[in-house]
Design brief:
The chain is of the alpha/beta class and 593 residues long. It has 18 helices and 14 strands. The chain binds 2-acetamido-2-deoxy-beta-D-glucopyranose (5 copies).
Length: 593
């Protein structure tokens, strides 16, 4: 009893000594500084001096963000509010014919509407057919359109919907915030806790000096800006990230240099003010420890630096110019993001390693439960994938074992990486030319890692910043397609593959489907992806880096003559003399030469 009393007194004495009171006040001030003072976190970071506040290494499992308030309509390219301008609307219709079932992926699971468009209905608002007599929409002087100004106006109208909206620095007009690294100072890598949520996503389209912009590219880019940024009240912002390649002039040395480079970049006038230029020197100064910095290996390096200099976005989609969305692009991104947010973490990697082929395995529920069965109700990964080189930043699992979780963990949490096609274990992959390419890791080629080609992905700021840190300070590298998935898994960050609808030119060939399905979850020995590693080539898919079919679909839709050896795409529907295409994303759509 006496011992207890004296312990209590001692405790009280410790609690109230002057030092501990000062310590408590200091901790309180630091926390308040990070979380309460909106101006404490600048969007323009000092990249060389350590900030006064140090946060916790690991994230916590936070409750989901509240929904943003209602979108405030914005002005479109015709100078009218988009909500009151039918000429700006794309025409998406439903047809009373059976909708084709995707070869893999699902409309229902991801929530993508089963609508159809004609080429005029799709791209008419953006200038398709404007030179024809029959063009019955009002015409736009595209050269005097300023897409960045429209985006900025739209964001300003909507700023109060976003946390600290007014403090977000939205300047991107005709100058870039990117900078060569100051080699006279030691660099530091900003950490995830130095930023607060902005609830905004950058849509970053990769392009390069000398790219020849055809009309179809212009239609595509205009549609992206209207349908993502303008129709969502600024939840997205489209950026052209322009590779100046080996351009001689030092582009960041002066404003005139930068403006000259912009001229030389070939970016069409209407998009100039949303372009952000970079060149080889930028990567040279930031990533000297990674010897190979060419795009084919390190496509995310410019994106890492973009996130570093433009941290006013929570997420960053990397898109290519050779993509097409046959329905509303904003809806597509909204649905991909929602699916990923609602997906549980448990078995998310396992689900991403199998293809959801409805004709083979049923709906998404059937698919998920087959993956669960193959994993005996547990998971191969629970929390970070531990490797000696990484001190994870992701949150601790709320229950100790995956088997104890009823698919609750991660539901409502935005994914740190959203991939657009299947993932594979790089160590087991037998036909990827870059599979042995890795450096800066203790176990080198034995390091567990995953790839999910193509490099069309969405990444959180936190994930890009840890990849940046690893490359800047430790020279750790692996190929583009493996970079974001692997860093996400090592750090215990959330990965999601929303299996959007993908079609195949060979509609009814079950044998061929079987070669891709590879027995599915049922035939898998460990539930960790198909045990058979060899896959056929992906020439005939509507979304796959090797494919030629997307071009054929676009050509047929536009009524162009197809080459003799190209079959008319079965999934196009003809009605009243018009050709309709189902809603999906196509990639790659290369220029007809
Ligand atoms: C404009 O033309 C398109 C295609 O030619 C047609 O479908 C549409 O109904 C027309 N709209 C108006 C308002 O006339
Ligand atoms: C728009 O600008 C481009 C590139 O500067 C030029 O080639 C084209 O003729 C212009 N179009 C019109 C309608 O002025
Ligand atoms: C999918 O699940 C449902 C309900 O459990 C079942 O009736 C159906 O047979 C399953 N489909 C396939 C293809 O396994
Ligand atoms: C967690 O799962 C293990 C193995 O499945 C089981 O033995 C244990 O009782 C579970 N614990 C809780 C708290 O559910
Ligand atoms: C699941 O359980 C079966 C039977 O107990 C076992 O053979 C199999 O290896 C287990 N699979 C996994 C992924 O643990």
């Amino acid at each position: 009893m006496g011992a207890l009393v004296s312990a209590r007194t001692k405790f009280r004495r410790v609690l109230f000594t002057r030092q501990s009171i000062i310590a408590v006040i200091l901790v309180y001030l630091v926390v308040a500084f990070i979380f309460l003072n909106p101006s404490a976190i600048s969007w323009k970071l000092n990249l060389y001096e350590t900030p006064p506040a140090i946060g916790p290494r690991r994230m916590t499992n936070n409750p989901p963000f509240p929904a943003l308030s209602r979108r405030i309509p914005c002005i479109g390219p015709r100078g009218k509010l988009l909500s009151q301008s039918p000429d700006d609307d794309l025409e998406e219709v439903t047809l009373d014919i059976p909708h084709p079932t995707p070869w893999t992926g699902s409309y229902e699971a991801v929530g993508i509407p089963k609508t159809w468009t004609t080429i005029e209905g799709r791209y008419g608002p953006y200038g398709y057919g404007e030179q024809e007599q029959s063009y019955n929409r009002s015409k736009v002087d595209w050269n005097s359109t300023d897409w960045q100004m429209l985006q900025k106006q739209c964001f300003t109208r909507n700023a109060r919907r976003f946390p600290q909206g007014e403090t977000i620095d939205d300047s991107m007009m005709k100058h870039s915030r990117l900078r060569y690294r100051d080699l006279s100072k030691p660099p530091r890598a900003p950490q995830w806790y130095e930023f607060r949520a902005s609830r905004r996503t950058a849509i970053v389209v990769r392009t390069w000096r000398g790219y020849e912009y055809k009309n179809e590219d212009l239609h595509y880019l205009r549609s992206l800006v209207v349908e993502t940024a303008l129709k969502t009240g600024g939840e997205y912002q489209v950026v052209l990230l322009v590779d100046m390649k080996d351009y001689e002039i030092d582009i960041f040395a002066s404003e005139p240099n930068y403006l000259q480079a912009l001229q030389d970049s070939g970016v069409p006038p209407e998009f100039e003010s949303m372009a952000v230029l970079w060149d080889d020197r930028l990567l040279d100064t930031w990533y000297p420890l990674v010897a190979e910095r060419r795009t084919m290996w390190q496509v995310f390096q410019p994106m890492q630096l973009f996130a570093l200099h433009y941290p006013e976005f929570d997420h960053f989609w990397q898109l290519e110019l050779d993509m097409r969305f046959t329905g509303d692009a904003g809806t597509f991104f909204d649905k991909m993001g929602e699916f990923a947010r609602n997906e549980p973490r448990k078995q998310a990697l396992e689900r991403s390693m199998f293809q959801h082929m409805q004709k083979r395995i049923g709906d998404y529920q059937n698919f998920s439960s087959a993956v669960n069965t193959a994993n005996n109700g547990s998971a191969n990964l629970w929390g970070p994938l531990r490797i000696p080189d990484i001190d994870p930043i992701g949150p601790e699992p709320p229950v100790p074992h995956a088997a104890n979780d009823t698919f609750r963990w991660g539901v409502g949490e935005d994914a740190d990486v959203i991939v657009t096609a299947w993932c594979g274990d790089v160590r087991k992959t037998n036909d990827w030319v870059f599979r042995h390419w890795i450096g800066g890791f203790a176990a080198e080629r034995d390091t567990p890692r995953y790839w999910c080609p193509p490099a069309i992905m969405r990444s959180s700021r936190a994930l890009l910043l840890v990849a940046h840190e690893a490359q800047l300070l430790h020279g750790m590298y692996l190929p583009s397609e493996a970079t974001l998935p692997s860093f996400a898994l090592w750090h215990g960050l959330k990965l999601s593959f929303p299996q959007h609808p993908v079609f195949h030119e060979r509609e009814d060939e079950d044998d061929f489907r079987e070669e891709w399905f590879r027995g599915g979850p049922e035939a898998s020995i460990d539930g960790f992806g198909p045990s058979e590693m060899t896959m056929p080539n992906g020439m005939g898919m509507s979304f796959w880096w090797q494919s030629r079919w997307p071009r054929a679909i676009m050509d047929a839709l536009e009524g162009r003559q197809l080459k003799d050896d190209v079959k008319y795409p079965y999934l196009l529907a003809k009605k009243d003399g018009k050709v309709y295409v189902p809603n999906m994303v196509l990639h790659p759509v290369k220029h007809n030469s």
